[in-house]
Amino acid sequence: MIDRDSARQDSSAPAGENRAAKPLSAPRRKILIAGGTVAPVVLTLISRPVLGGDCISPSATLSTALSHRDTKVGTCTGRSPGYWKNHTDPGDWPVPTTTTFYSFFQPEGSTHFYKTVGSTQVALSMLEVLQLTGGEDSQKMGAHFTAAYLAIKKGWVSPLALSETSLLAMWAEWATTGFYHPYAGAAPWDADQIKNYLINNHIAGD
């Protein structure tokens, strides 16, 4: 015998509860799964730096250091000399584009970043050093050190990789001797090796 009261009670249950009890169809499950994964993927892509990568300090460049992940000290997102040369709008640079190169990089050493104004020799600005062509900055050391300095000042370089003080010390040793020792007892780096370090570690290039 059918219990009509029970039947009426079942049929009066909220529609939402009846739907919840029904198993999801395969197409519906695919839609929900896809919808649930879109947001995290987008957030991940947005939060990652567009340029740059892992970087290490000069002292970590031992013969086998690059094969160990624990030598990575952070992420560096520096830009090339060409980037800084072409991005000179207010706010692009952390210092005025008219700042003279030698106001930070001392001593001058073998470099001569000057121009003649009338009968006076005037030190070139950082922007003018970036714009040098030919033999005026034949090894492009001035350009790459400028790019590295600007990236550090912008906060785009992990201080554990290379600080402003370390960069200026690197310049001072190279400008004076033509070489740089990345750590005590290390074989000295020449101009190309210094540039390779700055570029490959996303400090003055990407």
Instruction: Give the fraction of residues assigned to helices.
Output: 40-55%
Arithmetic mean pLDDT: 80
Reading the helices and strands in chain order gives: HHHEEHEEHHHH
Coarse structural class: mainly alpha
Work out the count of structural domains. 2
> What is the total tally of β strands?
4
Ranges where pLDDT stays below 50 over 5 or more residues in a row are 4-22, 28-50, 63-69
Number of DSSP helical runs = 8
Please describe what this structure looks like:
The relative contact order is 0.15. A two-stranded antiparallel ribbon has the order 1-2. Strands 3-4 form a two-stranded antiparallel sheet. It has two domains: 4-47, no CATH class; 53-200, no CATH class. It is globular. The protein is mostly helical. 42% of the residues lie in helices and 7% in strands. Residues 4-22, 28-50 and 63-69 have low confidence and may be disordered.
Keywords:
206 residues, mainly alpha, 2 domains, two-stranded antiparallel ribbon, 4 strands, globular
Give a summary of the structure in a few sentences.
The protein has about 210 residues and is mostly helical.
